[in-house]
Amino acid sequence: MNFTLLQAIQGRLLTAYGMIMLIPLLLGIYDNDPAVPAFALTALVTIVLGLILWKKGHMKDQMGLREGFATVAGIWILASFIGAFPYYLSGYIPNYLDALFETTSGFTATGATILSDIEILPRSLLLWRSLSHWLGGMGIIVFFILLLPRMGMGAVHLFKAEITGPDKERVSPKIRQTAMLLWGIYSGLTISGIILLKLAGMPLFDAINHAFSCMATGGFSTKNASIGAYNSWLIELILIIFMTLSGINFTIYINTWRKGRINLIRNTELKVYLAIILLATSVVTLSLIFQGGYEWSFALRGAAFQVVSVMTTTGFAITDFDIWPSLAKMLLFFLMFIGGCAASTSGGLKVARIVLLFKMGVVQIKQAIHPQLVTNVFSAGKVVDPLILRNVTRFFFLFILTFVCASTILAAVGFEPFDAMGAAIAALGNVGPGFGVVGPATTYASVLSLGKIVMIICMFLGRLELMTFLVLLQPDFWRNKSNW
């Protein structure tokens, strides 16, 4: 492990991170709110620490795969631990573990909160919550790649360690250009969301915060009642559209922009993604009408919003879906596992993996009938690399294993069985609200410390798709080996 190289990279990233903290600091100074000293001290210490590491390290050596994994895992952990101090030092979250939970939930775009009264927070902290969403949604490292000097293959390792999905597709030969295109689309959609939400009647500050949360599929709101506080079908419709857009593979936007059209026929993942949303919305609507006794207008409105919110792992709420009929709740529970498309800001298993797992299952059934049959798995008219299939299988197994372990521990600390499973997948899938004591009408404040630690770990594992953190537990990872 080249620690001097890690120091140089982490130093640059921390310096940039401290500079970003100046944004809510300036808003706090403008509002003269009590969180200003906390932001000022945290930003100052972060920048100084970053400059020290920057000076002590050097960038002369080539970054390897190990350094890439260590850098990505390190900056995500540091960003969360440091980002918790504005909440903690300002006194609005007096318990540091709770502050860490809130920040981790922000950067991993989970949206789970321990705050029972969000509206008492000063605007600087509200902006910091949604800004952490926005940075983490597309990826802290993907953003900072734009700020780092030329790193050659080093940037490739950073990109692959953070970007989500079974196939880390590059839309440009240069990683920096890929990062620029991704963040350009992301920023453009965010600005469009701010404008439309403002035109729909949302105050500008709220529009900025909710657009940040929406595009990151995070779910933090400036209101205690989330989106339900506005009681506006137009605002809900705008958010449904942008949540859906956020859950789509961002490389589709880039390829569409370049070619001027999108080939839906060949994009199986996108078709399945949209089909799941439409089918789930229909089933939940019927469940609410015939099992819950709701009027069809409310049923359709509530079903459409909550299905998209849960499927994209955003976590916004317009109603307490925890009181819905069992069929509707169970369907939402399953949607938490699926998530959005690969290379989107959504969490979960990703639709691309679900499609490949289904196709692999079909092949296995055929081979059970015809043992001598040799066949391949196809996607977009091409044979899928067997390495990708092995990675998908491995990821699915580890994801389910992590879910089972987390659910068991949460049950041990007092959760009811279904509530424990809901909380576990809400954290691991980066959804936010779960069921029962951590449902959309409640918070995570009552969860015991061990439960919060488990969910913090799950949020990290879910956002970086397990491997980036799990490889750090391997002793071989820290040994000097040429094949790394």
Account of the 3D structure:
- The structure is a single chain.
- With 484 residues, the chain is mostly helical.
- The chain has a domain at 362-478: Helix Hairpins.
- Helix content is 64%, strand content 1%.
- It contains 21 helices and two strands.
- It has helices at residues 3-20, 22-31, 36-56, 65-83, 85-90, 96-107, 123-138, 140-145, 153-162, 175-199, 204-215, 233-246, 250-259, 268-290, 296-311, 326-338, 351-369, 386-412, 417-428, 449-463, 467-470, and strands at residues 378-379, 382-383.
- It has a two-stranded antiparallel ribbon with strand order 1-2.
- The longest helix has 27 residues, at 386-412.
- It starts with a helix and ends in a 14-residue tail after the last helix.
- The mean pLDDT is 88.
